[in-house]
Write a structure and sequence with these properties.
binds cytidine-5'-triphosphate; 13 helices; five-stranded parallel beta sheet; 2 domains; Rossmann fold; alpha/beta
Length: about 425
């Protein structure tokens, strides 16, 4: 496929290098047309090297090839990223001052705009009108992602992640002009990793969770168009880019963060391994080994069940918030009293969550591994779904199931 990738003059231009990579790795021929302003952020040489094609933004280069007509005509797809407020305005009013705007006027195939700008610019009546005009003419304009902007503030205006733009572009070419990423406009909170329950300033009770599954879920949710909040307990892997991270240590801290985040979340996924118990007393100073004292005894007290509290809170909140989807995880071994599925079904009923992702654990399975095999149980009564593969693949299956439940299953609670 021949793609024209128009790059606008915004700081997010550097992220478009990754988008270009996704297109070329998928075997597409890409011509990059940066605006004059875009070349102040990322130089022409970068685009030439990454695309393997000559790059120009002037209608007066290679005039004999009539590029200002040819490029738009030949393109199977035009993608504009970042689509700045200025570029949206020029496209909406049909200006033709440079090679990119000429190409937009000559485009025969689908056109996708991936906006990025400050929140106030995005929300300005002028930009709203330009976006409506472009959509009215059949162009696809993605919603920008929400999160930290270039300055200290945050809000809608971030360039959607390259994978999100790539997915939307492919869907557009396949004729899905009303294509919406499954979690577009949704806020998803995901807890990940293992909590640590302190005994004293240097010791804690912990568990073997690596956080890999939670991080893979965060990536999959982000790629599905969601605004993602990752509540990160102890993890062995770094959090991914493009998600908001809230660091927590203990179950009590995680509970506080989860309750706060749940208030405006469409989906809450509890994939963290939360300690069921914590030491009843935490010493402020290091507990010393002394010969004259008896063997120490650690008394444990129960931690609150965060998942269950989230469900109760959601159910009390009632109709307006009743749409929130809550997903639990269960690690089960099965024993002489019951098999994995029976324990999992009972846990789904007991916890009251909407989906329960069940891991079958043995000594060598799940913790820290890159692959996983799960069954997704649903309280809506739909068939259990199996998913196996890398944690990335399993996460993609879980996230698409969540998208399905959100978009097709009637209100919960
Ligand atoms: N969970 C939680 N708060 C806790 C413990 C667990 O929110 N204090 C959540 C986990 O994040 C996960 C699910 O509950 O989504 C897992 O429950 P699990 O701890 O495995 O089950 P238990 O209720 O402890 O049942 P059992 O010990 O009988 O397996």
């Amino acid at each position: 496929m021949r793609i024209v990738l128009g790059v606008g003059g915004g700081i997010a231009a550097y992220k478009v290098a990754s988008l270009l990579r996704l297109f070329t790795e998928a075997g597409h021929h890409v011509t990059v047309i940066p605006t004059e302003a875009a070349t102040r952020f990322v130089g022409t040489a970068t685009w030439e090297a990454l695309s393997g094609n000559p790059v120009s933004n002037s209608v007066f280069d290679d005039v004999h090839q009539v590029n200002h007509v040819r490029l738009g005509h030949e393109a199977d797809l035009v993608v504009i990223a970042p689509a700045t407020a200025d570029l949206l305005a020029k496209a909406a009013t049909g200006q033709a001052g440079d090679l990119l705007t000429n190409t937009l006027l000559m485009a025969h195939g689908p056109v996708l705009f991936a906006p990025a700008m400050h929140t106030e610019m995005w929300q300005h009546a002028a930009t709203r009108a330009n976006v409506e005009t472009l959509r009215g003419r059949g162009a696809a304009v993605l919603e920008p992602a929400t999160g930290r902007l270039t300055g200290a503030d945050s809000g809608p205006g971030r360039l959607p992640e390259p994978e999100v733009i790539f997915d939307a572009a492919m869907a557009l070419v396949q004729g899905q002009s009303d294509y919406q990423l499954p979690l577009a406009g949704k806020t998803v909170t995901i807890s990940a990793g293992g909590t640590r329950e302190p005994l004293d300033p240097v010791r804690f009770l912990g568990n073997r969770s690596s956080g890999k599954q939670g991080v893979a879920l965060a990536v999959a949710a982000r790629n599905a168009g969601a605004t993602v909040r990752l509540l990160a307990a102890h993890m062995e892997v770094p959090p991914p880019a493009g998600v908001e991270v809230v660091q927590v240590e203990t179950a009590l801290q995680l509970r506080e963060a989860a309750m706060a985040a749940a208030a405006d979340s469409d989906v809450v996924i509890m994939s963290a391994a939360v300690a069921d118990f914590r030491p009843a007393e935490v010493s402020n100073t290091k507990i010393k080994k002394r010969d004259d004292t008896a063997d120490p005894v650690i008394t444990l007290v129960r931690n609150p069940d965060i998942l269950q509290e989230l469900v109760e809170r959601r159910n009390i909140a009632g109709a307006g918030e009743g749409q929130q989807l809550i997903v639990g995880f269960a690690a089960e071994t099965g024993d002489s009293q019951g098999d994995v599925r029976a324990y999992a079904e009972a846990k789904l009923q007991r916890k009251g969550c909407d989906l329960l992702v069940v891991n079958h654990v043995g000594t060598d399975k799940v913790f820290g591994q890159d692959t996983n095999s799960v069954v997704i149980l649903s309280r809506s009564g739909s068939e259990p779904q199996e998913a196996a593969g890398t944690k990335t693949e399993v996460s993609a299956a879980i996230i698409s199931r969540i998208g399905f439940e959100l978009n097709h299953v009637s209100p919960r609670a």
